[in-house]
Specification:
- The model has no long low-confidence stretch (mean pLDDT 93).
- It is elongated, with a radius of gyration of 19 Å.
- It has four helices and nine strands.
- Strands 1, 2, 3, 4, 5, 6 and 7 form a seven-stranded mixed beta sheet that branches. Strands 8-9 form a two-stranded antiparallel sheet.
- The chain is 26% helix and 29% strand.
């Protein structure tokens, strides 16, 4: 039993994922998700946090378990089931550094990934779909947005995660009528007229 961690961020309007370069076989030199073996009497959540910190130096993130992967041929060493976790973070929050059995660590655009070890391409693809579902449930998922934001900022977040352009007028109408955000009464000045500021409704915060 193993855990794998999908850490997403957004940089320059691109969805990116954190990968490590494997220092040990199998797939030595290939890029992969941070993760590793579950220790005896260890909780899955603890394993995910420990492996992430050991391989990248990153700790203290909100990780959400989203799926188990157990195809018989997914690992050449034998039958391994992995439980995958995901999160979405601001890029300036992390300073990852390769450690443990990782010989490198870096961010990659999700739409332009290198050859990956194991079935990690499948895990990342499903993680992206799960991230989209979580944001549909609440734009406050994983605490990525600031305390107040404009509807255009939320729309851009959804566009990047989904990977497609949205009708901004229809999106703003949906965001308000679905009851997931509320006006703060404030506004942000810009080059055009001031943009209204919103926040996630308290019951929707996650």
């Amino acid at each position: 039993m193993t855990t794998d961690i999908v850490i997403f961020t957004i940089r320059e309007d691109r969805l990116e994922v954190l990968l490590i370069q494997r220092g040990n076989p199998p797939f030595r030199g290939r890029w992969a998700l941070p993760g590793g073996m579950l220790e005896e009497d260890e909780d899955l959540d603890v394993c995910a946090g420990r492996e992430l910190e050991e391989e990248t130096g990153v700790a203290g993130l909100e990780l959400e378990q989203f799926h188990a992967f157990g195809a018989p041929s997914r690992d050449p060493r034998g039958r391994f089931v992995t439980v995958a976790y995901l999160t979405l973070v601001q890029p300036d929050r992390l300073s990852p550094k390769a450690a443990s059995d990782a010989s490198g660590v870096r961010w990659f655009p999700v739409d332009s990934l290198p050859p990956l070890a194991f079935d990690h391409g499948e895990i990342i693809a499903m993680g992206r779909r799960r991230l989209w579902y979580r944001l549909e449930e609440s734009p406050g998922a994983f605490g990525y947005l600031p305390g107040t934001f404009t509807l255009d900022e939320v729309c851009r977040l959804y566009e990047v995660v989904r990977g497609e352009k949205l009708d901004s007028r229809r999106f703003r109408s949906w965001a308000v009528t679905c009851g997931r955000v509320e006006e703060t009464g404030g506004a942000r000045s810009g080059n055009r007229r001031p943009a209204r500021l919103y926040r996630v409704k308290p019951a929707e915060r996650s």
